[in-house]
Design goal:
single chain; about 350 residues; alpha/beta; Rossmann fold; 3 domains; 6-stranded mixed sheet; 5-stranded parallel sheet; about 45% helix
């Protein structure tokens, strides 16, 4: 972004643009970063001031014209994961807003855990989109599609689960290894020195987020809680029914089970199994504040939920596509207990 010097020799800042346009600094920030909530007249006023002062160049100004909004596609896994359904609902609401000054957004659900379907969707949507935000599957077919599409100038942003591919412009989500370590720490502390087994349930190791959380959990268990025996991870594909069956099997096969960490989604099935077997002593931690996890926190079946706010996730992904090259910091981890439910 251009930043010319003023008559005093200092660089033009957003505060200078705000003063020239007669608006607040927050309004200028919203316009420059193309966030919602600014009237069209005010938006144009800010852009005119930015060009007059040299904060924006002519070429950059062209990207802010009403007919030049970024076209962005979100690709999410289909299935029964309540958090992903909530994320999809938020995106649909975002699309329905249809702000003249905002990006044009489309959202599609792709068959979950199917790398070929995701790769095909990336290629197919590259014909329309300036940028694609997607829940990455770490698989050669997806990597190849990303490389091809990036060569065409499409900006690519991974959300929730990263790909670690050089052609992706940014990753928006948590630092998942530290998330796994945090889960391991909480379970280790909550069991209060008791000896027994702990278990992991995941969607799929093809999601780097899940494998990184698993690795973080294992590392802290080995360091601080070697008295806890780790049961092999079960893959429930973020399906409530599968997670229910896995939990029943875990309880039957491991009478000394002390804790469960659901690395993925659809924690409702795990909570149902714990309730049916009357096992309030099992420490249970999962992801995504949804109706089922909220109920499980309230009734005491779950002890903690790691949450990623859908609105924040979407807005960060849009910003990352609209501002390529700008560093994207990991999202802060929000830990919700029954006593601090929002």
């Amino acid at each position: 972004m251009c930043s010319e010097k003023t008559s005093s020799g200092t660089r033009v800042q957003m505060t200078d643009v705000a003063e020239r346009a007669g608006v607040s600094l927050a309004t200028v920030d919203r316009v420059i970063n193309r966030r919602k909530g600014v009237k069209e007249r005010t938006r144009q006023q800010v852009l005119d001031a930015a060009v007059e002062l040299g904060f924006l160049g002519t070429a950059e100004m062209g990207r802010f014209n009403a007919g030049q909004q970024d076209k962005i596609v979100f690709l999410l896994p289909a299935g029964t994961n309540p958090y992903l359904r909530d994320l999809g609902e938020h995106l649909r609401a975002r699309v329905a807003e249809r702000e003249d000054s905002g990006p044009r957004i489309r959202c599609f659900f792709i068959e979950g855990f199917n790398a070929r379907a995701l790769a095909e969707a990336i290629r197919r949507n590259a014909d329309w989109a300036d940028g694609i935000a997607f829940f990455a599957i770490d698989h050669p077919e997806v990597r190849e599609a990303v490389a091809e599409v990036a060569q065409r100038g499409v900006r690519l942003v991974t959300i929730v689960s990263d790909l670690g591919h050089a052609d992706c412009d940014a990753y928006v989500g948590h630092e998942n290894r530290s998330v796994g370590r945090t889960a391991g720490l909480l379970i280790g502390r909550f069991v209060a020195g008791r000896e027994g087994s702990v278990a992991l349930v995941a969607g799929s190791r093809h999601y780097r987020a899940h494998s990184e959380r698993e690795a973080g959990f294992l590392s802290i268990q080995e360091e601080l809680f070697p008295h806890l025996r780790l049961v092999g991870m079960r893959e429930g594909h973020d399906d409530s029914a599968q997670n229910y069956r896995h939990t029943i099997a875990l309880l039957d096969q491991n009478p000394d089970l002390l804790g469960i960490y659901n690395v993925g989604g659809s924690s409702g099935g795990i909570a149902r199994a714990l309730l049916e077997r009357d096992r309030p002593d099992v420490v249970f931690i999962g992801h995504g504040l949804t109706r089922d996890t909220r109920n499980a926190l309230v009734d005491g079946t779950m002890d903690a939920v790691f949450n990623t706010d859908p609105e924040t996730l979407v807005e960060r992904a849009i910003d990352a596509i609209g501002q390529p090259g700008r560093p994207v910091a990991p999202m802060k981890l929000e830990i919700i207990f029954r006593e601090n439910l929002p």
